């Protein structure tokens, strides 16, 4: 028998759906978020939608336009670079702590996360883009696994929020770097298993910078990028 879910559960589910649709590009940068349309799509009340959109506004994924309503936050080169720099700062610190404290269970989870990512990277390399969201989800899981033993839940949560914003840019640009990124992921795994945080940080810097430059060369950001001097 169907039992109606509590309003908190419905609201949280709708929040996750809308947030996911923004991150994965189904709701595009600058798109107007009309409450009447969202009410039908996400099967929730206008009052709940307002709460959700205000919550997403506080996260920087939605922009409130006063009396004119809401829209998906735009994208810019400067914002991408700032997000990438913050991600690197957080991930380097968490990575060093994780390498120091990780145990055999952490190693096993990391190897498992990399295996799933590597399998999906092979699918992407074949030209099949139907699994793009799973590819990026496994990418997210691998980088979270790298820092999972850092000992700070707040650091993990903050990194995850920043990573999601970085991910949105990759989805906007459909940024798949092929074998280069695949090799960097394998190198990160090897460095982690050898507890070599110095090497891992160097690889991570190349990995994130390479992702930024690749994203800037494709999609809507490529036309706004200033030529190098």
Automatic annotation (TrEMBL):
HTH gntR-type domain mapped to chain residues: 8-75
Coiled coil among keywords: no
GO molecular-function term, one example from the UniProt record: DNA binding
Database matches in Gene3D superfamilies: GntR ligand-binding domain-like, Winged helix-like DNA-binding domain superfamily/Winged helix DNA-binding domain
Name of a matching Pfam family: GntR
Keywords: DNA-binding, Transcription, Transcription regulation
Record protein name field: Transcriptional regulator, GntR family
Organism: Rhizobium mesoamericanum STM3625
């Amino acid at each position: 028998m169907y039992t109606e879910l509590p309003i908190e559960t419905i609201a949280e589910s709708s929040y996750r759906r809308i947030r996911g649709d923004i991150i994965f590009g189904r709701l595009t940068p600058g798109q107007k978020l009309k409450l009447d349309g969202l009410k039908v799509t996400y099967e929730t009340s206008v009052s709940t939608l307002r709460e959700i959109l205000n919550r997403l506004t506080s996260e920087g994924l939605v922009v409130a336009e006063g009396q004119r309503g809401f829209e998906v936050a735009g994208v810019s080169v400067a914002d991408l670079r700032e997000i990438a720099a913050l991600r690197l700062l957080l991930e380097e610190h968490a990575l060093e702590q994780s390498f120091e404290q990780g145990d055999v269970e952490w190693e096993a989870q990391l190897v498992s996360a990399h295996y799933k990512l590597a399998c999906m990277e092979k699918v992407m390399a074949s030209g099949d883009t139907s699994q793009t969201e799973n590819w990026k989800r496994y990418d997210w899981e691998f980088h979270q696994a790298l820092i999972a033993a850092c000992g700070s839940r707040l650091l993990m949560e903050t990194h995850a929020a920043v990573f999601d914003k970085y991910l949105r840019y990759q989805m906007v640009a459909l940024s798949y770097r092929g074998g280069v990124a695949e090799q960097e992921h394998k190198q990160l795994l090897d460095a982690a298993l050898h507890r070599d945080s110095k090497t891992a940080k160097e690889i991570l810097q190349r990995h994130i910078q390479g992702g930024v430059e690749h994203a800037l060369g494709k999609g809507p950001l490529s036309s706004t990028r200033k030529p190098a001097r």
